[in-house]
Specification:
The complex is a heterodimer.
Chain A (H helix, E strand, L loop, with lengths): L11 H9 L2 H9 L3 E3 L8 H20 L9 H10 L4 H29 L7 H23 L4 H12 L8 H9 L6 H32 L12 H4 E3 H26 L29 H9 L3 H16 L1 H4 L11 H22 L4 H28 L9 H16 L1
Antiparallel strand pairs in A: 1-2
Chain B lengths: L1 H27 L22 H13 L24 H9 L2 E3 L11 E3 L15 H8 L9 H4 L8 H4 L10 H10 L40 H16 L3 H31 L3
Antiparallel strand pairs in B: 1-2
Classes of the chains: A mainly alpha, B mainly alpha.
Chain lengths: 416, 276
Amino acid sequence: MSGPSTYVPKSAIGRWFESRLPIFGLVHSSFIAYPVPRNLNYMWTFGAILSFMLGAQIVTGIVLAMHFIPSSTQAFSSVDNIMRNVNYGWLIRYLHTNGASLFFFAGYIHMFRGLYYGSFKPPRELLWIIGVIIYFLMMATAFMGYVLPWGSMSFAGATVITNLTSAIPIIGNTIAHWLWGGFAVGGPTLTRFFSLHYLLPFIIVGFVALHVWALHVAGQNNPDGIDVKDLQRDTVAFTPYATIKDVFGLMVFLILYAWLVFYIPNYLLDADNSNPANPLATPAHVVPEWYLLPFYAMLRAIPSKFWGVVILLSAIVVLAFIPWLDRSPVKSAKYRPTYRFFFWVFVAIGIGLGYLGSQEPTEGLALIARILTFGYFAFFLIIMPILSFTEKTKPIPTSIADAVLTRTKTAVAAAE
Amino acid sequence: MIRVRFSALAFAATTLVLASASAVLAQSDAEQPNPPRQSWSFSGMFGIYDKAQLQRGFQVYKEVCSTCHALSIPFRTLADPDGPGFSEDQIKTLAATYQITNAEPNEKGEIFKRPGTPADNIPRPEAYPNDQAAAATLGKAPPDMALLAKALKFERGFPWFVVDALPGFEYQEMGADYIHAILTGYTKPDDLQWNLYYPSHKIAMPQPITDGAVDYKDGTKPTLENYSKDVAAFLSWAAEPNLPERKRIGLRVMIFLIVFAVLLYFVKKRIWESAH
């Protein structure tokens, strides 16, 4: 898939430009002529959706940054100013907060697609690892962004997460003070989080570029998990086939986005964050945003602070090892019935952990959280390796073209 | 197929357990009942504020609540046609009745007070220039009401928190219901600080309004129920003045996106025909 472009511009100006900076050739070979398996389903549109959302967050974020004041005394009222006085400030703010949630929603679907169809398997291991790095950077960005409005929950969340660094033995407290810029979360913390929150998305852009590059070297995986054998029979050109699917998928996603922003903009916002931060008044229930809830549940499930932090970080780090934990030669869960069963159990565990993260940890719920945390790690560290060698898989089609033709034949036969 | 059924079962089983657990937890966790749901003119996809109700609500705020509670919104927003819709002159006169501390000192270096203008925020109650002064006198600082309706919430449990997001069922008025409930929740006349809907039933604010406290000019009955609804609606507006415009733009955006998506779908089908 990668290699020098075959693009020859039609105009003289085009050829002049291309011989000096072959950017049009790059766009042509990456997004126009680039071959894409013809059996992709709509789960493959989320990459484009994520790219759009990243752009949307950056644009809305930059506009917000023109009015936001990153000082502990003025942050809350500057957000109020954006909501009441800045022209369409309310719209930009709601686009940004709900955009973050939808960014994660699309991200999770994108990641689960990878787990289901084996998109992390050779030769796409690095692609997957870059994705894990992007996920981690997204979580850091979102966490810092949530602190910025300096509401009650912003302050509480900042305190909880930054206190985790003090779990590091010996140097933990020093690191915590260095991070805070003081002896507790305060003004300096807010200001530096603003600086980093502005920086991290651009680092994400860099990793997304690497992500797309790594993808284009190997080419897309596909729902049948079979490699492309014949470019003519198995693939279609990116434009117009994948382009139109991506745009359509994006439009449907935007309908969800618009519903959130215009009709239920505060649905995902914790009401406590509409109270200004007060170090002396902690909210009754401290919870992060929904996309961090499963990890919050895991953190709280472990009674020891140090091991809680270890489990929390391991839960993300373990994702990077998946290409070596799941060695099944069959990529797609379509042909792996046992793996498919455990995949859906894992999804239920994820949702269960997320729900538990939003509730107060009573004795009974803490026990369930521990069981589910065990289940989370068991899926990666026990199920995946065992199934790699012992699973009885269904026979896979000989080629992508055959897979598509069999499906159309069965559909036509069923219709008759 | 059996495998699919198993995983579907596992999924459904987990969901059911969580649903029953959560519905029980949501109420047993808190011994106070959830505020009863009221009907508001601004609920639903097409709901907007009722100007007359907002004007009455502002009157209740000014005559009763402003003694202790700040409402840090600019005077000019009271003239918003999507909101209370007072006239420019009414707002100029209203603002001028307040003495505002000027941001900059005068040429002599003295901090001075001047009559308010529509650009100024409604000032804090004179008696309580800051939260500490208020807490010293009243026990607890009365919260600023500018965002109060957005800052109040209560658990509804599963599946309600899912239903509350769906078109046709959306529930964004929890703040208004809560305010209305608190004001009408002083059901023990012998205990001034007992409130049915407040956590642990002990609220620092004794009953602020009773029947007949405010003289309505438009003929609406001067009952506690009406005061509560009107001031709750007014405070909802204060917290979300963008609501009417947001829903107006939202309708156009949704229609555009749905039509465009349908068109794109047919274009996609047409393009992919040549791939087969």
